[in-house]
User: Which sequence fits this backbone?
């Protein structure tokens, strides 16, 4: 519908990231903590996403790509706190994930956030075992990969070549490059196929009209598989 926008809450996308992670054949270690980080890395947005924040200049709702920095970082900080209350290792991964986006930022708010999260990471690392520390960087890359694979499903469209922001360079882990492509409007192919099994996705969405009024709701449904399956 050209007169409306489809809105998917960010935590719903993150839960799909977790579906990739839990089916990964060569899964992470520690498994439980890393899976918790992957599927809850956007838990901060459960509250803010209930409200549609309008980008007046663009004439559409804000996306996570252009959401105002101050409120975005406040939400992310609260989200990492929520994860840390449940699992310190998972919180370190989420902190690394968010701090990475601000690695080159000179905005004072961004710099303050990054420094605060680097301090958090240092504190959390002190409580890790040697094995957890050895796997931390790989698990961080694993989180980023699963995040990117899920984002592809919601930012790309069947028939459009290339990868959408923020994954224009595609997907890689441990020296293997993975290709995602739409085989039809409800089937996505992942090649090579690193998962233990294909899986189905059903994610709720809302529509909001250009007049800012609710315009319905539904579910995005498709299947992630390998090759022609």
Assistant:
């Amino acid at each position: 519908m050209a007169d409306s926008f489809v809105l998917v809450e960010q935590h719903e996308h993150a839960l799909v990231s977790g579906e990739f992670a839990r089916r990964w054949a060569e899964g992470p270690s520690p498994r439980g903590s890393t899976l918790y980080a992957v599927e809850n890395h956007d838990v901060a947005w459960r509250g803010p996403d209930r409200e549609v924040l309008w980008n007046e200049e663009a004439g559409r709702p804000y996306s996570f790509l252009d959401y105002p920095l101050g409120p975005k970082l406040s939400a992310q900080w609260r989200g990492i706190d929520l994860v840390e209350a449940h699992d310190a290792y998972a919180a370190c991964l989420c902190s690394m994930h968010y701090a990475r986006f601000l690695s080159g930022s000179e905005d004072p708010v961004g710099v303050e956030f990054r420094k605060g999260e680097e301090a958090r990471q240092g504190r959390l690392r002190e409580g890790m075992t040697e094995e957890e520390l050895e796997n931390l960087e790989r698990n961080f890359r694993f989180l980023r990969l699963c995040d990117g694979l899920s984002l592809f499903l919601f930012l790309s469209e069947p028939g459009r070549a290339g990868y959408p922001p923020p994954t224009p360079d595609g997907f890689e882990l441990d020296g293997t490059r993975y290709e995602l492509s739409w085989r039809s409007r409800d089937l996505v192919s992942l090649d090579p196929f690193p998962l233990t099994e294909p899986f189905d996705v059903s994610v709720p969405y809302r529509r909001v009209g250009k007049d800012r009024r609710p315009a319905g709701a539904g579910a995005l449904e498709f299947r992630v598989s390998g090759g022609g399956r």
Q: What stands out?
A: The mean pLDDT is 93. Strands lie at 4-7, 54-55, 60-61, 171-173, 176-184, 187-191, 199-209, 214-225. The first strand starts at residue 4 and ends at 7.
